[in-house]
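Reminder: ligand-aware prediction takes two inputs, not one.
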Amino acid sequence: MSDTLKSRLLQLLLDNRDKPVSGQLLSGQLGVTRAAVWKEIEQLRREGFVITSATNRGYQLTQMPDLLTRELIGGYLPSSRKASVICMQEVDSTNTAAQKLILEGGEDGLVVVADHQTKGSGRMGRPFLSPAGVGVYLSMVVEPHCTTDALNLLTSYAGLAVCLTIEECTGLRPSIKWPNDVILEGKKVCGILTKLVSDGENNRVTHAVIGIGINVGQEEFPQELRDKAISLRQAGAQDLCRAKLAATLIQVLDRIFFEEKWLQTTPDAALEQLKERSCTLGREVLVISPREERRGQAVDLDRWGGLVVDFSDGSRETVTFGEVSVRGVLGYLPQ
Ligand code: BTN
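Here is what comes back for the chain with biotin:
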């Protein structure tokens, strides 16, 4: 995808946020006249960018609109990374979009980000509310190249990546409700849904799509979600830049899956971090399967991210999927 003059200009302004850049320098670098630079600056201002200009000093970007565009997210990423980030104003689901792109050759590290999902999907076939302007809805394609056992760790590691991202961008310290909810103040701030894609011939998992939805700027939620959902804003993070949050998340995911290759190496340190972040361990849990509901105590995580539970009948089992409610988190308060 070739960059437009406007996006190249924006990139230069983003690269020089700490100082003004002269019109002459901009026109030289972009290979266009100063009048053309000025025209694009005016267009950016109309879109909500605050760009100061002072005679003999040049232009400086001082404020950006809270948009999830490729230029803005790319402004926080190395330029080589920006090429495989696709941003959409509105889409049914970034997971579905990423799955379609895999069929067209989309590879490791491809990211789809949307400002609004009309059909955001959650676990257990539930919808994931994804209104415009207040969330980050992001799917990343990962070619797992790992054992079947390690596939469950895709979601666990993604949860950890979200915690690290939120902590870096806001100073808040989220925890993880097993297996895939990121929690602040006992409520869900982010949900994760991982979809596996297999090749038709030998049923081998060729790709995973890790879908992550973060509540960022909501001031309130619909009545039915009020006890269960929270946004970063409600948790105290004001004026967050969603583009920066998305870019940070992409970089943390890149480090975990592509640079340090955790799926292949399953480092002990990663498991330790998962345990430290867990708000499920040590708590009374209700394990819900299609057939029954059983109470127990969550005691450990096994090395593949499974939840080890001591059930009230005295048995110890490792739960690898299904729904687990944790007492006092997301409204589960058994008698
Ligand atoms: C859950 O909490 O049940 C999982 C929610 C996952 C939501 C994300 S938003 C980005 C991606 N696209 C989707 O349709 N779902 C995931």
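The chain has three domains: 5-63, 70-277, 284-326. The chain has a mean pLDDT of 92. We will return to this case in the review session.
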